[in-house]
C-alpha cells in the first residue's frame, strides 16, 4: 500500500452553528461545501486548510460526549503548523480563545501550545 497523504479529518460537534463559527471565523478555515442531510438530521461542512487539507465538520442529534480528556482512545488532538506562534496565540486571545502557555518540545526544540474547540477537542499549534 502506498498512502499519498491525509485526505481529511472528520470532527463531530455538539452545536453546529457554534463550531462552524469557531472553525471559520476564529481559525479562518475556508468553506468548501456545506450540506444538510435531512435523512440524518445532520450537517456536513467541508473546510479547507491552506487549500491542501480538508476538515469535515459533522453535526448529529445528541452525539455522545468524549469519555475522558485528553487520553481517550481515538484522536488525541488536531495540530496545525504556524510560522509565528506568538502572533497566532495573540490572535486567538483577541478572539476570546483561552490558550495554554507556549512550551518547547524537548525532542525538537520547537514551540507549541494547545487550546480547545467548542466541544473541548484539543487543538495544537506547532511552530515550523
TrEMBL record:
Superkingdom in the source lineage: Bacteria
UniProt keywords, alphabetically: Metal-binding
Pfam families per record: Glyoxalase (PF00903)
PANTHER family cross-referenced by the UniProt entry: FOSFOMYCIN RESISTANCE PROTEIN FOSX, LYASE, PUTATIVE-RELATED-RELATED
Name this protein carries in UniProt: Glyoxylase I family protein
NCBIfam families recorded: PRK11478.1 (NF008551)
Sequence ranges assigned to domain VOC in this UniProt record: 5-128
UniProt xrefs under SUPFAM superfamilies: Glyoxalase/Bleomycin resistance protein/Dihydroxybiphenyl dioxygenase
